[in-house]
Amino acid sequence: MTFLHNWGARLFITGLMLCLTACGPKKIPYSQSTDMPEPNEAAIAHYNWGTEYAEQGDFGQAIMELTLAIHNEPGWAMPFFTLGVVYGNQGELGKAIQAWERATQLDTDFAKAHYNLAVAYSLQADRALSIASLREAIRVNKAALSSAQAEPAFDKIRNTPEYQQLLQAAEANP
Prior knowledge:
The chain is mainly alpha-helical. The protein folds into two domains: 1-18 and 39-92, Alpha Horseshoe (Serine Threonine Protein Phosphatase 5, Tetratricopeptide repeat), CATH 1.25.40; 108-174, Serine Threonine Protein Phosphatase 5, Tetratricopeptide repeat. Helices cover 71% and strands 0% of the residues. It has helices at 2-21, 41-55, 59-72, 77-89, 93-106, 111-123, 127-140, 143-150, 161-172. The longest helix is centred in the N-terminal third of the chain and has 20 residues, at 2-21.
């Protein structure tokens, strides 16, 4: 029974990781929206190992590898984003927020990082920062609006005037 419980938990975490990081057998972009050169080979290797460890549920090893990827290529937003996902899966929202903030500094049009920040800030009951991050996510990718409307983390802010104004502005500017 323990085996099935552990297997189920790992399957859930792997699915969550794949959903949030959108990792797959595709070329790893330097960022989400720029044509900057590819990261160096060492950074790519550490990033790939980090995502593999994260998918296996070995978060400590994933953090180490992602940190090495960042050390080798400090201007690459993807390891910061994925590091935030790992911290978020561990329930360490403060560290996740720091990583996603850095990812958005490196790539201001990184919609997924802005969206994850909005979710994290909402979970921390920081309405102003949640709305600001969600506004940025929607600015970059209009699909964030439909995701936000179904996201349970926004239940805390959904009925606020600020959230309603954000929805109206987003719907007015398709």
